[in-house]
Structure prediction request, 274 residues.
Amino acid sequence: MGVNSSEFGLSAATTRKAVFALRQCLAAAIADERIKINPASAVPLPTERQRPPRYLSQSEVERLVDKMPRQYRALVLVGAYAGLRWGEAAGLRRRDIDMLRSRIHVTSTAVQLRGRVTLDNVPKTTRSKRSVPVARSVMRRLEQHLSEFVDPTADALVFTAPAGGPLFRSWGRAVLRPAVLRAGLDDITFHGLRHSFVAIMVAAGCNVREVSEWAGHNSVAFTLTRYGGLRTAPMPRSTALTHFSTARSLEPYRTAIRLITTQVEVITGLVLVV
Prediction:
């Protein structure tokens, strides 16, 4: 008899994850010689129907940013233009933003469990720890956010609740959703902003291996499977060129301009040290 996830109001994906976790627990019990067989090993699982990811174009992202409360505009930016997951963005600290090199360093994540948010947790996978290049124009707006809304200490959270403290996932329903509706958009979540980041980069012709690395995906194969169709179904030329301009600004060492920029930063760093 299979698992009927709809009977309990659970999605197929949630049900599959729960059964996989149960199988691992029972496998550990077998290894410890507490039980002889794994009763969950042959349980039929519901099929997970993969819906096409919903993503925004750059103009739609900017429309959404305009409708957000000022305190949270930068949160949309790190989702759509840096591809951060919710926990990575909620746990981001001032020291993780490298304004000189225009990068965001993802080193930890926030986790919400049983009504509490814990910070500085190890990211979900090894590849989740990463350094994401960010367009200079976006970094300037992040710098403005740091100046207006973030304490000057290195460990200060970049994004906090209105009354202070870490953000909870209910922020999506209370703040993001109304802004999405005001912007005339629909069915977009914070994770949809992450989809937008990957989609923009892939559709603009960026190297898929680098996009996969920036997004913190488990493998390049996952990125190709999920977003590869965008390479054969490109955006309209005007839109693609706009995205391509942004995307190219995120590819370090790809052109002579990038090399010159790097040299200037090194010289600046030496001057600062002296």
